[in-house]
Specification:
The structure holds two protein chains of two kinds. By secondary structure, chain A is an alpha/beta fold. Chain A contains eleven helices and 14 strands. In chain A, α4 packs antiparallel against α5. Chain A starts with a strand and ends with a helix. Chain B is mostly helical. In chain B, α1 runs antiparallel to α4, α12 packs across α22 and α19 runs parallel beside α22. Classes of the chains: A alpha/beta, B mainly alpha.
Chain lengths: 295, 471
């Protein structure tokens, strides 16, 4: 059964802002990505999950508990990294972790120390003096500290440099392997592609599509871009009976769809032509959603 | 209760807020200590005499409304201003920081991502604010009482006066013995020589004439009224024309102050010692020109002292009346009467100095309670808006604007009589220190202030529980 269940969730802020009739189900152990531009409604959805706002209609449940009505009980299963990082006035990161551990009723700080090391964070720094990246790491440590079943992350990688982002993704992957359910929002497709099992695209408060990243990764239908050395070859080749996606005469380029099963046959044909280069155009989530939206 | 109060949140809030509380509490303690330490009853008494001289007939009412004791002075200087404004500033800053600022900045998200209920968070923050205000006023009250005891020694009863201490040294007894048996040790001393010496010592200690000192003692320690008090018939037996007495002396006073009392009551406590001295004389009017007036006025003072705190206002008004109608009195009596009036004035002044040292602990605690309730009501307003709004700027606009507005309204309303109606719009009117010290009604105002606090704190917690949070 699904761990997170959102049914017909609507929150109308007027002027087309808000979220409308959102339905989602997330299974236990699943990593769920939530992609959309700024203002698409990602944070609004997360606020519902955290019980910070009350739905206009519809319901939102975690572990069969209503996220609004039983919001404090839900927090027994949930950890949260807010989108906007603002810490309480507590001086250093260590003081903040200590305060948070007290609120959570945690006794030992071993796990927090482990994550701190993993993220290469110096928690003795003053919260106010921290760089954006350090603050982000601090927020992540605070969220991972209680070792909850569900991790809700609102754009967790903003402010992290590419190296740190990789480290963060590793860390989340580890958490995922432990059987944690992950729900994260982002505006970067690459991030969810690396991390998530399922990805939903939200636009103007509506879920446009939900797609499994496995399907994208193991897509058999590939696209290749080929440039020919001369016009003659280009013309001859483009006259072939192939599934062309695009022909660019000026550059002597073609983009052609090839299924993995027919790849040898395709290369057999290609042997007869002089080519300048050939590249595979990766089929990405972004591309998939672009196609969905274009439809 | 366990469901509502969270010790960890309370501790954390305390950790980040106690400094501000400390600063305000320290400043208030300093202010109350200084207000008490610099209080000078002699200066106060002079101030009162000056008012009486300046204001003439109107002085009675005005001065009656002003309490010239230490408590009265505190009511004006400390409770009328500092005890209202400073806690208010502390509350306005703190109330916003407890909820609205945390929501606006987003740090509330960390508290609410733990399994703690929203109403627990709001209740604990409210409890923090309330307990900080209560402890602030408790500390101020204790510091105030300690300062009173140290600088005036008048928390537990009245401190011995300088003359009582001097006489005690002379008689080799304790000062409190003299204070408690003042008349017995001084005026009623059977040995005339010893009595004279004692009166000289007492007068010297007070730095006044012996004559004024005697008059002062008459005021301070009137005879036990029930044993030796002459009645109207006593006067008649002594050959005093009572009607004459009434018409010439009392009526003018009665007219002046519209004191509704019958002659017997006024004359009752007249000093019997003076009567004894002169009882062998046939004509009361001739025998008493020197002392009659001031004796009767002393009697009135003694009579009214225990009944009505307004009495000194009245007496001063009478004096003023005497001053204003000098010609009338001079023609009808003689300059001795004026001398009596002067004596009375000087003796009253001495009496007032003593009264100034009086410190009413109960009244002081009521003033504290009033200021505390007012602070709690202010906290209710600020805390409510802190819970109501998600943006600090809105919370500050109303949570600060309304209490400050109330304060300004009250201030403006006192500028002119035509603006008096503004008082009824302002919550500050509900805490009136002068009403408390002048024996007015204040309980329902206290009740209203308390109710405002309870209602607004409850509404604030409910609102915070139900609203959408942008976290």
């Amino acid at each position: 059964m699904s761990l997170v269940k959102i049914e017909n969730l609507t929150k109308d802020y007027g002027n087309g802002r808000g979220i409308f009739d959102v339905n989602l189900e997330i299974q236990k152990g699943e990593a769920f990505g939530f992609v959309g531009t700024n203002g698409a409604g990602k944070t609004t959805l997360i606020r519902h999950l955290m019980g910070f706002i009350k739905p206009d209609s519809g319901t939102c449940q975690i572990n069969e508990l209503d996220c609004w009505g039983n919001s404090h009980e839900v927090k027994n299963f949930v950890s949260y990294v807010p989108g906007e990082i603002a810490f309480p006035d507590l001086g250093t990161g260590t003081a903040f972790f200590k305060a948070q551990a007290d609120l959570l009723g945690l006794k030992d700080a071993e796990y927090a120390e482990y994550i701190t090391k993993e993220l290469q964070l110096d928690p003795t720094a003053l919260l106010k003096r921290m760089s954006k990246g350090m603050k982000q790491k601090t927020a992540i440590v605070a969220a991972l500290m209680p070792d909850r079943d569900i991790l809700i992350l609102d754009e967790p990688t903003t402010g992290l440099d590419p190296l740190m982002r990789v480290r963060f993704i590793d860390l989340i992957n580890k958490e995922k392997k432990k059987g944690k359910t992950i729900f994260m929002s982002t505006h970067l497709f690459e991030e969810v592609e690396d991390l998530c099992d399922k990805v939903a695209l939200i636009k103007d408060g509506k879920i446009i599509a939900v797609k499994s990243t496995k399907e994208i990764r193991h897509n058999e239908n590939k696209q290749y871009k080929i440039e020919f050395l001369n016009k003659t070859d280009y013309k001859k080749f483009s006259a072939l009976k192939l599934d062309f996606y695009e022909k660019r005469e000026k550059q002597n380029q073609v983009v052609v769809n090839v299924c993995d099963k027919k790849i040898n046959e395709f290369f057999g044909k290609l042997k007869k032509y002089k080519i300048k280069f050939i590249t595979e155009i990766k089929y990405t989530l972004e591309k998939y959603f672009e196609e969905v939206m274009a439809k | 209760m366990k469901d509502l109060f969270n010790k960890t949140i309370f501790k954390q809030t305390f950790k980040s807020n106690w400094k501000l509380w400390m600063i305000f509490t320290a400043i208030l303690c300093l202010f109350i200590s200084i207000s008490i330490a610099v209080f000078d009853p002699i200066a106060m008494s002079r101030l009162r005499d000056m008012f009486a001289g300046l204001m003439g007939d109107e002085a009675g009412e005005t001065i009656g409304a002003i309490n010239f004791t230490l408590t009265g002075s505190l009511a004006m200087m400390f409770f009328g201003m500092m005890a209202v404004v400073l806690p208010m500033i502390y509350i306005l800053i703190t109330a916003n920081s407890l909820i609205a600022s945390k929501v606006d900045r987003g740090s509330m998200a960390y508290t609410l991502s733990t399994p703690i209920k929203r109403k627990t968070v709001a209740f604990t923050q409210a409890a923090y604010l309330v307990s900080m205000i209560v402890s602030m006023f408790t500390i101020i009250a204790v510091v105030g009482l300690v300062t009173v005891q140290i600088s005036h020694g008048s928390v537990f009863g009245t401190a011995p006066t300088a003359d009582a201490r001097a006489i005690a040294r002379h008689l080799n007894v304790s000062a409190s013995t003299v204070t408690n048996n003042l008349r017995e040790k001084t005026l009623d001393n059977p040995d005339p020589e010893a009595r004279e010496r004692i009166l000289e010592i007492g007068a010297e200690a007070r730095m006044i004439d012996v004559e004024i000192y005697i008059a002062y003692l008459e005021l301070k320690a009137p005879t036990d009224s029930d044993t030796n008090v002459p009645t109207l018939s006593d006067f008649e037996e002594m050959g005093v024309d009572v009607d004459w007495l009434a018409s010439k002396m009392m009526v003018s006073m009665i007219e002046a102050r519209q004191i509704n009392t019958d002659m017997a009551q006024v004359i009752r406590p007249i000093n019997s010692a003076n009567l004894r001295e002169t009882s062998d004389r046939a004509n009361f009017a001739e025998a008493f020109p020197t002392n009659v007036l001031n004796t009767i006025l002393f009697g009135m003072a003694a009579q009214y002292l225990e009944l009505d705190p307004m009495v000194f206002g009245n007496i001063l008004a009478i004096q003023t009346h005497l001053n204003n109608n000098r010609d009338y009195f001079v023609s009808d009596f003689n300059y001795e009467l004026l001398r009596g009036a002067m004596l009375l004035q000087l003796a009253t002044s001495q009496y007032n100095i003593d009264a100034g040292y009086e410190f009413d602990v109960g009244e002081f605690m009521l003033l504290m309670l009033g200021a505390l309730l007012f602070a709690l009501a202010t906290a209710g307003i600020s805390f409510f808006f802190s819970c109501f709004f998600n943006l600090s700027k809105h919370s500050i606009a109303l949570g600060t604007g309304i209490p400050v507005g109330f304060y300004l309204l009250e201030t403006i309303s006192s500028l002119d009589n035509s603006l008096n109606w503004l008082r009824y719009v302002s919550m500050n009117t509900l805490f009136s220190p002068s009403t408390i010290t002048s024996g007015g009604v204040f309980w329902w105002q206290f009740l209203v202030l308390g109710s405002i606090a309870v209602v607004l704190f409850t509404a604030a917690i409910i609102k915070f529980k139900k609203k959408d949070l942008p976290l």
